Sequence to fold (433 residues):
Amino acid sequence: MRTVGVPGPGPDAAARNAAPAGTADGLMQRLGLNFVLVSTMVLGPIPMMLPAVLAVDLIADLGITTGPFSLALTANTIVAALFAPLSGRITDSIGPKRSVVLTIGTAGVGMFGMAFATDVWVLMASAAFAGLGQGWCNPATNKLIAERVPDGRRGTITGLKQSGVMFGTFLSGFTLPTLAVWFDWRTAIGLYGVAALVAAVGIQLWLEPDAPTVEDGEAGYGALPGAVFSRAPAHRPATQLKESARVFIAKITWFSLLMGSVVGGVGRFQVLFAEESLGWTNFWAGMASALAGIIAAASRIWWARLTERRVQPASALAVQSVFTVFAMVLLLAATTVHDSLMWVMSLLAGFTMMSWNAVAMLAVITGVPVALAGRASGIVMLGFMSGLSIGGLVAGYVYEQTGSFSVIWVSFAVCAAGATVLALTMRRRPIAL
Fold:
């Protein structure tokens, strides 16, 4: 089994512990590690975003309708959800460096498949294959942080890498329309595929190897000096989570399912709601949605840093979910009180509803042994990716049947309230490992 190198007994144990393999000690090493983490979180999920930005061109060129197109893209999140637990176990087995490289590589191959798609089935297969990277990116990057980043720096770097998803959303929306005008939609997506494969090769060549493996029983909850769980006894093999840690991860997974449903539904229908119910133009509706994304990119770093230094993850998650309930109330009030409440809602949503996953990922990194960080992350991502799929599909069905957004916002308020109750039952003290 893979664990991080904790030396066995001997006179030179302290010397070997002083400079473990794979640590990011120098400024350039830390900046490089930041780049690797952010790049992985940009390129892993971005295949899902590219076809959405170029939807009009793809639908026209492939001769399909909106329904099959949406179903093809849903294959990405379905595969991501199903593969996430397995990707976590693979990460724990082969190490975070190889996992990061494979994450970006599978995303690149998937984007190439989209660029050469001749019908909806090729598009669906390519999106599904890219879903492997979508489900793998968090277990791989969480494991990389757990192994290579010491206490005191994990909060900031976790928030930064979670902001990579938001940066990818901005990057695709900003560059793809221009590239499609200059060339065509196939070339635009293909260039992103090239960038992903180049990044994968570059990371493979530049990033230092993972810490050496040891046999079961030689080290258990081993960690870098000053990093997670270096205080744990070296004789205890980290083959499974303790009961308290398993319960904690299970609750975060259900929390992720509930909040992921809210994020998936609001993200898919906020713009349509602003256009149809508030009478806004597409430009202003899109600006309100973009505002939430900009706020989320910065607040993820702030929340993760705050959680590491001042508050427990459970407390932070409870605050974020309860304010998500308020955000849903603002959506309801926007149609009856004043449409300007949509801007307040976007600010609040960016700060809470779209930022909680930075706290959740940090909770996983600091709440489980290093050797099991990958599989724990995969389980949590199963909940989140399932929520994204369920929230979007259910909201679409409800709107089609009722023609009203009110039922959707009330339902999501209930989901967020349930997540709040769940967070309040989580442990407030560090888990004894």
Notes: The CA atoms of residues 345 and 429 lie 32 Å apart. The two ends are 19 Å apart (CA to CA). The mean pLDDT is 80.
